[in-house]
Amino acid sequence: MLPATPLSAACCNLALKEEVLEDILDLDLSVSETDDFIQLVSGEKILFGSVPLAHRYGGHQFGIWADQLGDGRAHLIGIYMNRKGEKWELQLKGSGKTPYSRHGDGRAVLRSSVREFLGSEAVHHLGIPTSRAASLVVSDDEVWRDQFYDGNVVKERAAVVLRVAKSWFRIGSLEILAHYGELDLLRTLLDFIIQEHFPSVDVGEPNRYVDFFSVVVSETAQLIALWTSVGFAHGVCNTDNFSLLSITIDYGPFGFMEAYNPDFVPNTSDDERRYKIGNQANIGMFNLNKLSQALNPLLDPRQKQLAALILEGYPDLYYTRFRELFKAKLGLLGERKGDEDLIAFLLHLMEKTAADFTMTFRQLSEITQSQLQELNIPQQFWALQTISKHELFPAWVSQYLLRLKSNMNDSDSERRKRMMTVNPRYVLKNWMAESAVRKAERNDFSEVRLLQQVLQHPFQKHSTAEKAGYASPTPSWAKNLRVSCSS
Ligand SMILES: Nc1ncnc2c1ncn2[C@@H]1O[C@H](COP(=O)(O)OP(=O)(O)OP(=O)(O)O)[C@@H](O)[C@H]1O
């Protein structure tokens, strides 16, 4: 048994994600008002029969083998099988030291916990596989952090997030076993993971590890294409942060890109820009290669060859999905020669004009074809006004309108309706998260709650969100916000 270190009794604030509590954990919301619940989510109490544990894993961090990492500040407190028959693993993050804490304090600070709490839910509601967050508890317990690694250590407040996922196993979970030659354990763990989470793979099959690898490769390609399609930069794509189930995990210094820029990196500690948004797909390849190396000791020569071929197919899988997603973002139906050029041309103009990624696509979904044709862009379409300053914008518009004409059985209102279901009006931009964090630091959770509501329906216009400026240009105070992975 691995006890958590509870937050102190001064524990003062609680944010909840009703949907996760009700739909995943089958809990009535009134339960959250009980002492038992607060004690559970702040690490003070364990569930009857629960044996909390921390998981050992290793990983490649920024391309270099980091050896043993493990859950240094997270406790797995149980697995819950809900009414729908789904199994969910419950983890507290920030719940104190574990055998893998190394020099860390086992804590998470309020700012990073609010970001994980809001970020994971925002990503879920954009239709992207991710861990979920059920609750956030904040205390007055002191935590000391040198946020930007510049010697400026400041006092921050501790928080604990109750987060859930179908599984928290990562590429690093297998790497550590292969690295130390613990092959029996590697086999046992892999068979368990396949049995529990890969219904399409037959655990009795001699080729099961290759089949498993094939699923992870295609699901990872799909995940990263989805990230790209909404401008999501994970920020720290180390192999210990890449889920074997290809869900988004570890909400560290993630960010939604604002001005379109393939070099965008949300993590100010990433000087070499290894994890910039335009490099995420390549990093996916790097990480999958590390996964194949971890599987290698269990494969015969023919299986190794097969795994290498599967990995070679990854770029195609990624680009196919990328193309599909961006075609949908532009409302294009069917397959036409030149579709890729049309997408690339638009991205080029966005890059040159630093047009807002989310709102350019959203406003293309809202504007009518006749407004576009006249190149008469109303003021409310501020992102399109930005991109329209490029001298080649009229050329792009005429190619686009011509292409839309070739959509079969389509009308402009149907195109717009369709595009509005894939191009969000609201994403969790860094400035929004920062504004909510600053208020939460003062015990005002109103913006955390507002963002929770808004991001639950990112494709629908929401009057309070409009008033808060969530679909407006980034406010000037937030132009140079920095986000660190020291959390
Ligand atoms: N304050 C801390 N105390 C102890 N261990 C820590 C602390 N911060 C980070 N770690 C550990 O350092 C490693 C890398 O940290 P990273 O920020 O990627 O993970 P994390 O955000 O803590 O966890 P997760 O990936 O589960 O969300 C992990 O093993 C993590 O548990």
Walkthrough of the structure:
The protein has helices at 18-24, 35-41, 110-125, 171-179, 183-197, 208-229, 280-295, 301-312, 314-329, 339-353, 357-366, 369-373, 382-387, 393-405, 412-420, 430-441, 446-455, 463-467, and strands spanning 13-16, 60-61, 64-65, 74-81, 87-93, 108-109, 132-145, 154-165, 232-233, 255-256. By secondary structure, it is an alpha+beta fold. The protein has four domains: 13-165; 171-310, no CATH class; 325-420, no CATH class; 430-478, no CATH class. Strand 4 (74-81) and strand 5 (87-93) form a beta hairpin. Helix 3 (110-125) packs parallel to helix 17, helix 6 runs parallel beside helix 8 (301-312) and helix 6 (208-229) runs parallel beside helix 9 (314-329). The chain is globular, with a radius of gyration of 23 Å. The mean pLDDT is 95.
- Largest sheet, if any? 6 strands, antiparallel
Q: How many strand units?
A: 10
In whole angstroms, how far apart are the ends? 26 Å
Percentage of residues in helical conformation:
40-55%
As residue ranges, the low-confidence spans are none
- The number of domains is 4
Described by the principal axes of the CA atoms, the overall outline is globular
Short description:
Its cofactor is Mg(2+). It comes from Equus przewalskii (Przewalski's horse). This protein is of the alpha+beta class.
